[in-house]
């Protein structure tokens, strides 16, 4: 532990060395600090084990009923002295008449004790005579102090207090509990070594312009003390993964395209050769929008050709009405196919990233809305092996070095493959992107003549691997505790 | 996706050649099966819905035999001519017009075989049968049936003893009171007449597509089977029949034909098809340089027949391979037979320079500026709840866009603004240190005349004890000035979400593009927040990109 002290700590220790066992308020008064500064300083000192704070009971004294009356009219012995001042001497009987019956004994005994009177015997009669010195007794002095409620510790003449206590109803005692501060043995040691000068706490413009810095050096500070936590604002971790994916696509020569989230069934399903009675099109898997349908889904030629392809391939009566129903896109492929249908490129490398929707029950594995990325290569001579090569390159850039391929099925690609990547952290193979070559039943009706390699998948899965999450919902909780602590570059 | 359970000892017997478990497990993914679960004695695999022939271990064994080289080429389906017949009454036309059938004889049913057949039947009902709507299968004990059969219709008052029941029940009761009745009854619509299969003794055989009769229930002692498939699509019915026929033949049954006549129905042929495949197309698509003979042997490993003829391959596809629609499907069969693991990835030459699009780039800049100003990025859903979007914020919901039948209560409408979601985010972070500053960019939806309009918005919220209108206004000004050189002003407005007198429209280039203000105490309280919040939301579409 560093023994460099803050000026506040410095002042507190000095004060406590002089007066131990005092309250926060007393420290503030003695050290000339604000109460806030004292609190803060004590916090630091406690952490450094230089002080200890403990509870203590403080007793107070104030005047009772008789005490107050005595203060106003004087104590019985003073009353006696005042009487004597007029008469010089008197007998007991005379004094008794001048005082209350209850006061008489106390007045005689205390006045004699104070040395104010003398008692002589003459013919069986006690004569009281006044002496010269009748200055205020310590009890009287105490009475005037006790006008205000006073801590016992501040009363110097303890015997006077004891004396007053014996008199009925003169004194009231009460107490309050309070915390007081004291130096620990380590604190006492530090206090003895404390230098007298504190030094300047802060370098200021004033000090620099006046040159004052030359005379008064800066005080050392506790450079090992803990500092308050601040949170560097940042983009969302999932957005970082999306951006990383975008960068990789751009670096591989792909241009980004985007499209609407709400699409007609035509582009989401029909153009991709998904028959109108296909289970994937049912409401329990797909979100259809209430009370909307597309005005114009495609060109008349596109509609005619797609319809023909369905009739030929699936043997059913294709309905335009069904194709007009608006859905929240279930994949980004609708954006890709629409782009290809309208732009008809002979050669192209395009990609898109965006939200897609599935009507599922939300769970640790499934979200109703998530991000998908899709890349497409159009070219006269592109092959399935090229598609595999692009995958391998993409994963390599993501830091995933071990990749293998298995056959799979997608309704709109043939051949179709799925990629498996080896996850070092989990020590197992994880299924990632799917891929394939668009079926002729998809491309031909839309006038696309060259082969189209397509591949893609969910981004959340990659993010979960990257941030070691077990529950996909965590990505959308926006839990500030997580956002403020998850490393930008894990 | 459907799942099949494979017992190693049974599968090894079906393969007909000693094959290690490791080899089986390694090979399964290469015929397109995903391994779901693995134990000492069995393995569960998921198959793609395009391969209904993989709905039994017989079909899977056949596929494995090909790839392992145990048996290659097309499995031959031998159909002997049977003396069984079904006559179709024209009354079925409007309800369920087609029936197809076969007979399988002299087989042995053990528990596992029955389980495989029932699983296949279920999978075919759900997949190709579209939950029994398109096709449905009945399998019966042949020996309880007196031919010829009639496929006809009866009234809903008709009574018979259905499967697992001991007494007669009417059709109406079956549809109302049984699980299968309530589940599939809607397939029959409101039609007064329903389809029925009767035998020549007048016994009810089946009430398709709902339930069989109790009379023909199969058991371990059953040796001879009748399979009938009713359908609204003749092709689908015959495809299904072919799959069942191949599975039963592999299970050791002899297959016999059933003669079908009447009302445009006919005896199924289940013949194979021929497709011509070009060698060039195969090599061009796969990026290989395979000889005709390699292509032929690869196709045979995929359990197809193939013969080379110069530059062409004559392929024969059995009826049960319903997944093969055209030549590209055959190219894939070549790739599978050749072995996907034997394809070495290559990199195509790049012809273009890649780039992100304008919107993405603008949003990236926007994000960088907001982060620079100390704001954390939040990501919320665009499919949200009405409660958060409208009720708690007191916003007008008259133009709300809903989805149909959402399975999740929290995701039923499309958001038209981002701010409600951000305030909700604050309400889920009340235990975290303040100040809390959040921003989000994303798509919001609105209803045009009929079409859905999509625009991109930016919104932010700032929550802590000393937050004020002017603080978020400073942020607003800075974002548009630093990011896009745009000056913005604010004009007093009134908005249910904000405190009266502390809300303003955001004006850029003389157009109102959004709203800014201090969130009203009522809204803050609705979200159970105990901290002041200020924020703004601005439309970016049409402002910094089109």
Give a verbal description of the structure.
The complex is a heterodimer of chains A (490) and B (546). With 490 residues, chain A is α+β, with helices and mostly antiparallel strands. Chain A folds into 3 domains: 7-57 and 177-198, Arc Repressor Mutant, subunit A (Orthogonal Bundle); 76-128; 237-483, Bira Bifunctional Protein, Domain 2 (BirA Bifunctional Protein, domain 2). Chain A is built from 20 helices and 16 strands. Chain A has helices spanning 7-18, 24-31, 35-47, 65-73, 76-87, 92-98, 101-113, 138-145, 158-166, 185-193, 205-210, 237-251, 265-268, 300-314, 320-324, 333-343, 384-397, 440-443, 460-466, 480-483, and strands at residues 51-63, 89-91, 117-122, 125-130, 150-151, 171-183, 255-256, 262-264, 288-293, 325-328, 348-357, 369-378, 403-407, 413-423, 428-438, 452-458. A 7-stranded mixed β-sheet of chain A has the order 7-11-12-16-15-14-13, with helices on both faces. A 3-stranded antiparallel β-sheet of chain A has the order 5-1-6. Chain A has a 3-stranded antiparallel β-sheet with strand order 2-4-3. In chain A, a hairpin with a 2-residue loop joins strand 3 (117-122) and strand 4 (125-130). Chain B has 546 residues and is an alpha+beta fold. In chain B, the strands form 6 sheets. In chain B, strands 4, 5, 6, 7, 10, 11, 12, 13, 14 and 15 form a 10-stranded mixed β-sheet that branches. Chain B has a 7-stranded mixed β-sheet with strand order 19-23-24-28-27-26-25. Chain B is elongated and about 90 Å long. Chains A and B meet through helix 12, strand 7, strand 9, strand 11 and helix 17 of A and helix 8, helix 10, helix 11, strand 19 and strand 21 of B.
């Amino acid at each position: 532990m560093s023994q460099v002290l803050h000026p506040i700590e410095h002042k507190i220790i000095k004060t406590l060395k002089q007066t131990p066992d005092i309250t926060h308020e007393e420290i503030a008064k003695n050290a000339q600090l604000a109460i806030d500064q004292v609190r803060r300083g004590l916090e630091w000192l406690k952490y450094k084990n230089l002080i200890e704070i403990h509870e203590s009971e403080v007793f107070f004294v104030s005047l009772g009923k008789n005490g107050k009356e005595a203060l106003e009219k004087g104590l019985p012995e003073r009353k006696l002295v005042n009487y004597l001042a007029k008469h010089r001497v008197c007998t007991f009987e005379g004094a008794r008449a001048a005082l209350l019956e209850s006061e008489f004994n106390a007045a005689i005994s205390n006045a004699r004790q104070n040395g104010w009177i003398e008692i002589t015997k003459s013919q069986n009669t006690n004569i009281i005579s006044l002496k010269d010195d009748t200055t205020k007794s310590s009890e009287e002095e105490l009475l005037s102090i006790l006008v205000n409620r006073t801590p016992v510790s501040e009363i110097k003449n303890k015997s006077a207090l004891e004396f007053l206590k014996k008199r009925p109803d003169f004194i009231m005692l009460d107490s309050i509990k309070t915390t007081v501060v004291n130096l620990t043995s380590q604190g006492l040691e530090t206090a003895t070594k404390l230098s007298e000068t504190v030094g300047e706490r802060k370098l200021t413009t004033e000090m620099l312009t006046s040159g004052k810095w030359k005379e008064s050096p800066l005080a050392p500070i506790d450079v090992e003390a803990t500092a308050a936590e601040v949170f560097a604002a940042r983009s969302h971790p999932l957005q970082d993964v999306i951006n990383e994916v975008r960068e990789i696509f751009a670096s591989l020569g792909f241009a980004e395209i985007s499209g609407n989230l709400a699409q007609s069934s035509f582009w989401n399903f029909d153009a991709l050769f998904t028959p109108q009675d296909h289970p994937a099109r049912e409401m329990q898997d797909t979100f259809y929008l209430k009370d909307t349908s597309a005005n114009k889904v495609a060109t008349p030629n596109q509609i005619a050709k797609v319809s023909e392809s369905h009739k030929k391939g699936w043997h059913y009566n294709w309905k335009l009405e069904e194709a007009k129903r608006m859905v929240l896109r279930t994949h980004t492929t609708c954006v890709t196919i629409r782009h290809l249908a309208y732009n008809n490129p002979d050669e192209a490398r395009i990609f898109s990233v965006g939200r897609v929707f599935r009507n599922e029950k939300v769970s640790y594995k499934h979200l109703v809305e998530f991000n998908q990325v899709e890349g497409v290569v159009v070219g006269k001579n592109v092959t399935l092996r090229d598609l595999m090569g692009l995958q391998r390159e993409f994963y390599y850039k993501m830091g995933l070095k071990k990749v293998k391929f298995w056959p799979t099925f997608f309704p709109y690609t043939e051949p179709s493959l799925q990629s498996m990547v080896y996850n070092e952290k989990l020590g197992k193979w994880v299924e990632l992107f799917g891929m394939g070559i668009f079926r002729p039943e998809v491309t031909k009706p839309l006038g696309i003549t060259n082969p189209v390699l397509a591949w893609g998948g969910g981004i959340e899965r990659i993010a979960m691997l990257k941030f070691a999450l077990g529950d996909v919902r965590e990505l959308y909780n926006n839990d500030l505790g997580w956002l403020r602590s998850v490393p930008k570059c894990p | 996706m459907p799942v099949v359970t494979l017992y190693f000892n049974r599968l090894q017997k079906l393969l007909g050649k000693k094959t290690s478990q490791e080899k089986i497990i390694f090979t399964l993914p290469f015929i397109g099966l995903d391994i779901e679960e693995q134990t000492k004695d069995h393995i569960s695999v998921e198959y793609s819905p395009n391969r209904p022939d993989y709905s039994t271990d017989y079909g899977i064994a056949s596929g494995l035999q090909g790839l392992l080289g145990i048996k290659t080429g097309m499995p031959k389906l031998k159909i002997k001519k049977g003396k069984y017949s079904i006559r179709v009454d024209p009354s079925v036309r409007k309800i369920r017009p087609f029936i197809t059938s076969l007979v399988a004889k002299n087989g042995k049913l053990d528990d596992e075989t029955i389980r495989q057949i029932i699983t296949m039947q279920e999978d075919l009902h759900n997949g190709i049968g579209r939950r029994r709507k398109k096709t449905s299968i009945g399998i019966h004990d042949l020996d309880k049936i007196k031919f010829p059969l009639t496929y006809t219709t009866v009234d809903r008052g008709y009574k018979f003893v259905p499967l697992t029941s001991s007494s007669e029940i009417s059709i109406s009761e079956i549809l109302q009171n049984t699980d299968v009745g309530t589940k599939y009854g809607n397939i029959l619509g409101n039609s007064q007449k329903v389809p029925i299969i009767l035998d020549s003794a007048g016994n009810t055989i089946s009430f398709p597509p709902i339930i069989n009769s109790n009379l023909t229930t199969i058991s371990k002692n059953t040796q001879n089977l009748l399979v009938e498939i009713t359908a609204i699509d003749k092709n689908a019915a015959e495809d299904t029949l072919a799959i069942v026929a191949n599975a039963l033949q592999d299970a050791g049954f002899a297959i016999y034909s059933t003669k079908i006549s009447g009302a445009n129905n006919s005896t199924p042929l289940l013949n194979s098809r021929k497709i011509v495949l070009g060698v060039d197309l195969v090599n061009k698509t796969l990026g290989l340089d395979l000889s005709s003979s390699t292509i032929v042997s690869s196709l045979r490993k995929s359990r197809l027949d193939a013969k080379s003829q110069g530059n062409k391959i004559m392929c024969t596809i059995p009826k049960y391979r319903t997944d093969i629609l055209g030549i590209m499907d055959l190219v894939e069969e070549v790739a599978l037979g050749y072995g996907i693991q034997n394809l070495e990835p290559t990199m195509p030459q790049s012809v273009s320079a890649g780039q992100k699009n304008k919107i993405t780039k603008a949003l990236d800049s926007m994000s960088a500026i907001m982060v620079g100003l100390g704001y954390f990025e939040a990501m919320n859903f665009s499919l949200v709840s009405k409660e958060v979007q409208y009720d708690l914020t007191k916003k007008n919901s008259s133009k709300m866009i809903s989805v149909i039948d959402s399975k999740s209560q929290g995701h039923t409408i499309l958001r038209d603004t981002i701010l409600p979601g951000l305030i909700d985010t604050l309400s889920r972070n009340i235990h975290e240190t303040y100040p809390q500053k959040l921003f989000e960019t994303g798509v919001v939806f609105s209803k045009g005349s009929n079409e859905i309009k999509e625009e991109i918005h930016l919104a932010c919220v700032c929550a802590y004890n000393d937050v004020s209108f002017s603080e978020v206004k400073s942020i607003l000004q800075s974002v548009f000035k630093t990011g896009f050189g745009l000056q913005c002003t604010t004009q007093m407005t009134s908005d249910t979400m904000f405190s009266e007198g502390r809300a303003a429209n955001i004006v850029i280039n003389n157009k109102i593009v959004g709203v800014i203000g201090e969130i009203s105490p009522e809204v803050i309280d609705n979200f159970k927040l105990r901290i002041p919040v200020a924020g703004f939301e601005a439309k970016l579409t049409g402002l910094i990109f089109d």
